[in-house]
Specification:
Keywords: Lipoprotein, Signal. Pfam families: Lipoprotein_15. This is SCO0930 family lipoprotein. The protein is elongated, with a radius of gyration of 20 Å. The protein contains three helices and 21 strands. By secondary structure, it is mainly beta.
Length: about 350
């Protein structure tokens, strides 16, 4: 019996080691999207695949069963702006996750009214490391010290939060929750105000838990039903990988898969945001060979296919855009098996 058990354990260990060394790295972290490679998860990552515990609900968020002594927080990194067809320009964190503001907060002086269970459903965005998006006045960014000592990011005085039910970049399920929570615009105002579609303030307002259907794409396509990563047939490029918003996914020729390294850092990430980890079960039509999470030197987690880091392009404004194709002779769309599409041989 012991001999059989030892053999099984040895086989399991060998399989794990093979998956980790396939990308030229030797140590693994938590499992998220595939096999995570590198350092441990950053602060704020939850114990389930969605990031912060998808069990929280109403306007304040009833966090039944949550036993953490301190509510989760989120690291902002390089802030970006997402051009939402429903909400207009929406402020996001370095992973492309929507940032929110709370009507019951105050700005003069800045003060948060979201504590306890509320802060479990609406994780606080910390101020440390926050960098403004291109074209946004840095003086708009500030901080407020919460009762627990955490310094929370403010934009034009409004404290910033994420929403526990937003599972991936492009989600805005917190919009209109309780009639008090709204996605934030780059200047700290409500993103719903002045949105081009005229739907803004109504998105999600009819659902107490924010489970509204997110529509995406200037071409009228619905992207809410898209998996985290899937395949789209482009009329010029053929089959290419797209993210959960239907946006084209790219690779950078200066990156390396063996060993896994990135050559896109700093200002590069403002134009080429990383694709955040996507659970392997939330994909369709793509290869899962080398489907691992890359722990970047800057602390971000990045999804890979065949060990190649994946990005989107800030110049793509709607699903179907491929404006990043061939940029600099080094950026190309990605095929379902992780290869470059249209790159010179």
């Amino acid at each position: 019996m012991k001999t059989w058990r030892n053999a099984a354990l040895a086989a399991t260990a060998a399989a794990v080691a093979l998956g980790l060394t396939a990308c030229g790295q030797e140590q693994g972290g938590d499992r998220l999207g595939g096999q995570s490679v590198g350092a441990a998860a950053p602060a704020g990552a939850g114990q389930n695949g969605s990031g912060y515990g998808a069990g929280y609900g109403d306007g304040y968020g009833s966090a039944a069963g949550a036993a953490a002594e301190k509510p989760p927080t989120s690291q902002p990194g390089q802030l970006s702006v997402w051009d939402s067809p429903e909400l207009g320009k929406v402020l996001t964190d370095g992973e492309g996750r929507t940032l929110y503001r709370f009507d019951k907060d105050s700005t003069n002086p800045p003060k948060s009214a979201c504590e306890g269970d509320c802060a479990k459903a609406w994780p606080v965005v910390e101020a440390a490391g926050a960098r403004p998006p291109a074209g946004v006045d840095p003086s708009l960014l500030g901080a407020v010290t919460r009762p627990d000592g955490v310094k929370q990011l403010t934009v034009d005085g409004w404290p910033m939060y994420r929403y526990a039910k937003d599972a991936k970049p492009g989600d805005a399920k917190g919009q209109g929750v309780g009639g008090t929570w709204y996605a934030a615009a780059p200047d700290g105002k409500k993103a719903a105000q002045g949105a081009g579609s005229g739907q803004g303030a109504d998105v999600g307002a009819g659902s107490g838990d924010g489970e509204s259907e997110d529509k995406g794409g200037g071409d009228g396509e619905a992207t809410a039903a898209l998996p985290g990563l899937s395949v789209r047939k482009d009329p010029k490029l053929g089959e290419i990988v797209v993210d959960g918003r239907g946006m084209t996914v790219y690779r950078f020729q200066k990156d390396s898969a063996w060993p896994m390294k990135t050559a896109c850092t700093g200002a590069c990430l403002e134009k080429w945001p990383v694709v955040a980890p996507v659970d392997k079960n939330d994909t369709e039509g793509i290869s899962t060979k080398g489907y691992v999470t890359f722990n970047r030197p800057d602390g971000k987690k990045q999804q890979t296919i065949d060990c190649w880091p994946l990005y989107t392009f800030a110049g793509d404004k709607k699903p179907g855009d491929t404006n990043g194709q061939g940029v600099g002779g080094t950026w190309y769309a990605v095929s379902p098996d992780g290869k470059l599409v249209g790159a010179p041989k």
